[in-house]
Each structure stands twice: as C-alpha cells, then as structure tokens.
Amino acid sequence: MKISRISMFALAFVVSVATIVAADPPPWAYGFEGPPQAGDTPVPVRPANTDQTPRSIPGATTQYARAQIANRFGPADWFPSEHPQMPDVVAHGKQPNVWACGLCHYPNGKGRAENAGVNGLSVEYFIQTMNDFKNGNRKSADPRKANTNLMIQFAKNMSDDEIKATAEYFGSMKWTPWIKVVEAKMAPKTKPSNGLFLVEGNEMEPLGNRIVETPVNAEATEVLRDPHSGFTAYVPVGAVKKGEALVTKGGGKTIACGGCHGADLKGLGPVPGLAGRSPSYLMRQMFDMQQGFRKGTWAELMKPVVANLTTDDMMNIVAYTASQVP
Ligand code: HEC
Ligand code: HEC
Fold first, then answer.
1. CA-angle at 288, arms to 285 and 292, nearest 5°
2. Are 220 and 324 in contact (CB under 8 A)?
3. How far is CA 137 from CA 42, 96, 114, 284, in A?
4. Whole-number average pLDDT of the chain
5. Taking residues 217-245, what's their average pLDDT?
6. Which of 168, 201, 300, 320 is deepest in the core (most CB within 10 A)?
7. Are the C-beta atoms of 236 and 314 separated by less than 8 Å?
8. What's the half-sphere exposure (Cβ side, CA atoms, 13 Å) at 5?
9. Exposed e or buried b for every residue in 106-120, given b needs 16+ CB within 10 A?
10. CB atoms near residue 300 (< 10 Å)
11. Is the pLDDT score of 39 beyond 90?
C-alpha cells in the first residue's frame, strides 16, 4: 500500500498529540516531591548567601566563605590548576543578567543533577543548544523549574562571541566519571532543596519506580560546591539491563542510540555524549523533547526516538546510560 505524504503527516500528528496528554513530568527528574498542578509558576530561587565564615575543603589551599562560594558574579574556584583559564563570563558572568557559568556548572563543567554537566560537549552542539535556549526552543516541561528559565535569561543576554568562548572552554575538557549508579530496593530518604535531592539523616525508604540522584556528601555539594564531590544515583533493581536492551537494540519501541551518539555513547561528531552523565538531567531532556518543550532542528532527530517511550522506559534508559563509564 502506498502511503501519501499527507497521511504520514496526519499519522505523525496523531502520534504526537497522543503523547502530549500522556504523562506528568516525573518529579524525581525535575527536583520536586510531586507533579506540577495547574497554574504553578517558577519556584523562586534562594536569595544570595551572606555567611562570611571561612570554609575549606580537602586538598584546596584557599579558604572561601559561603557568600563567596555562592557568589553569582565570582564564585569560589577551589582548584584553579585543574582547568584551563576560564573565560571571564565563566568566572564572573556579566552584570546584571548573566551569572557566572562556574557557579552552577562548576569551573570544571561537571555540573549537578539540577542543572547539567557541560564539559566534553562538541563546540557545535554547545553553540546550537545555547541558541535554542535563546530562541525559545528549550524550555522545561515543569513550570516550577526556575533555573531553566535562568539559563534562558543568560543565553539571551550573551553575545555570539561569549557563547563561543564558553563552548570552547567547556569543550576543551573531557567528561570523566562523576555519578555512581547503584541498583537498590531502598534508598536514603531525601528532600528536594532548590531542585536537588539532599539526604537528611540516616533514614532509608523504598525507592519504588524512580531514580534518586543525590550528592555523595550533601554538605560538600550544597554548602561548599566541592567540584571533586560527585553523585550517587539509586535506580530500581533491573533498570540497567532493561535500559541496555532499549539503548542497544531499540526493542521495537525506539531507535538504537549508538548510530548517532557513538557506539560507546561518548558522543559522535557534534552529537552529545550520554555515557556517565546525570540521569536526572538526561531524563528531563528526553521527556521535554517528547512533550515538545525542547525542539528545534537538531531535536527533530530525537522525535522518533522518544515518541513511543513510556516514562519507565526513559528511566531505564538513563539508568543504563549513567552506568556506562565514560
Ligand atoms: C543558575 C544556575 C546556572 C548557571 C549560572 C548557568 N547555567 Fe547552564 N544550565 C542550568 C540548568 C538548570 C540547565 C539544565 C536545564 C534543564 O534541565 O531544563 C543548564 C544547561 C546548560 C547547557 C545544556 C547542556 C546540554 O547538554 O545540552 C549548557 C550548554 C549550559 N547550561 C551552558 C551554560 C553557560 C555557558 C553558562 C554561563 C554563561 C551557564 N550555563 C550558567 C543552570 C545554570
Ligand atoms: C538519528 C540520530 C539520533 C538517535 C538515533 C538518537 N539520538 Fe539522541 N540526540 C540526537 C541529536 C542530534 C541530539 C541533539 C538534540 C538537540 O540539540 O536538540 C540528541 C540529544 C539527546 C539527548 C539530550 C542530550 C543533552 O546533552 O541535552 C538525550 C538525552 C538523547 N539524545 C538520548 C538518546 C537516546 C537514549 C537514544 C537511543 C534510545 C538516542 N538519543 C538516539 C540524535 C540522535
């Protein structure tokens, strides 16, 4: 049977409408306790910290107070010898509307679950995606996620030269292991804090059908922004194997990822790497692309990949990609 272009278009339309009504943003990936409600607006970010008590971290020679660690226009750089010289916008941002990239993504670009790892991305992809933020092609499916809006604000206030300088700086560093994946039935009890799940106390709770990505050391990450202190991702038992089947074979539901992202998932040409990156971040991106919040020329290629995946499929996929050592 010959299918006309028109009916193929109509079919694609039906498929995309069907997926748009399908699901709420998974709260574990967006940093909230439950799904958004109608009329929700961005949750205001915490005011700047003013604590002047000097702090130190293992191996660093300089002390910084919290006011400086969290300074939006000049945050702490604990290990300056471990990265190339930062472009000014990475180290200091640009007053008043662009905060220092190093504040949220760290000077080494490793980033955190509530934002993104930005090092080791191709310069072409980095520039493309900054322009997508700028042009309204990258938004969050969860209206409460204020830091995605900040990212949009920063991109809108940067020149092409500034974007290129940041792309080259972060692209000059390689992505290295930062997140440890643990399959488990129980996970430490966490509470969301500014989009990041933090462990409080020693209580454990059933993991259920979600991923809990949390700092190895809450104080080191949240208070000190130690760029050596990474994350643990608790994933459901069996998730990694289920994800592997989808990633490597497609399983009739999706397209195997290796052809575009590289057989080892470390990125291929301009296409970004997935191996060992934040599962919460990648989950948000797949969900945002499926629901049409992240779009644009490059994201078109991802549409058929995510169209028929359930939230659980995507969770299994990111459990697997996170478990792959970069
Ligand atoms: C307030 C914290 C914050 C600061 C400061 C910040 N970002 Fe981000 N950035 C984010 C968040 C949050 C995301 C992920 C958005 C999402 O998940 O919806 C992100 C994502 C990104 C991505 C996408 C990575 C990918 O794999 O596609 C790039 C690139 C990026 N940021 C670059 C920058 C640059 C360049 C700067 C400095 C000018 C900067 N960011 C400053 C919060 C921040
Ligand atoms: C036909 C090529 C192609 C295939 C197959 C493909 N991708 Fe992608 N993927 C891309 C491109 C191109 C982008 C960049 C999209 C953009 O810039 O908006 C991307 C982006 C992504 C992102 C966002 C990365 C980031 O840093 O923000 C995720 C997550 C992702 N892909 C996951 C997957 C998974 C999982 C599979 C397999 C199940 C897969 N992709 C298969 C081409 C592909």
1. 140
2. no
3. 18, 24, 19, 14
4. 93
5. 98
6. 320
7. no
8. 0
9. bbbbbbbbbbbbbbb
10. 10
11. yes
